[in-house]
Amino acid sequence: MWCCGETSIIGIWGLVLTCETGLYPVEVESDAKVVVGWINDSKHYSSDVGLVIDAIRKLLRYNVSCSIKFVSRKANVVAHTLAKLTLSCEEDYVWLEDFPPCIWRHLLEDAPDCV
Asked: InterPro entries in the record, alphabetically (predicted)?
């Protein structure tokens, strides 16, 4: 079983991988303050999680149009709702021009001009 920090890392890893799609800029926002700190500091972590952190750092270094920052959960309801959704998914999903219905209300609240 993964702890919440490890789950956040996997979610961030997926978002950072979008940097490789050529869709720029990518700004990853996470409410996992500790995880964002792990990624943004220069320490080496000797674990499976450390390997993922190193890979995320490498992607961020080579994709200057990609960044990661901490935001509070209240300011990031869409991301939190998506993260909860992923915990119940048994398959991988990719939404390029659409989004899951569970975030519609939150999108309207967060960015009414974008939907």
From this structure: RNase_H-like (IPR053151), RNase_H-like_dom_plant (IPR044730), RNaseH_domain (IPR002156), RNaseH_sf (IPR036397)
Residue 104 lies in a domain: yes
pLDDT tens digit sequence for 81-104: 877 777 777 777 777 777 788 888
Query: Does this model's pTM top 0.85?
Result: no
Distance separating alpha carbons of residues 48 and 69, to the nearest angstrom? 22
- Supply the range of the domain harboring residue 71: 4-110
Domain count, the chain: 1
22-35 residue pLDDT tens: 777 777 788 888 88
Cβ-contact 81, 73 below 8 angstroms: no
Contacts of 93 (CB under 8 A, 6+ apart): 100
Contacts 24+ apart (CB under 8 A), 40-46: 40/68
Q: For residue 107, how many C-alpha atoms fall within 13 Å in the half-sphere facing its CB?
A: 11
Contact of 77 with 85, CB cutoff 8 Å: no
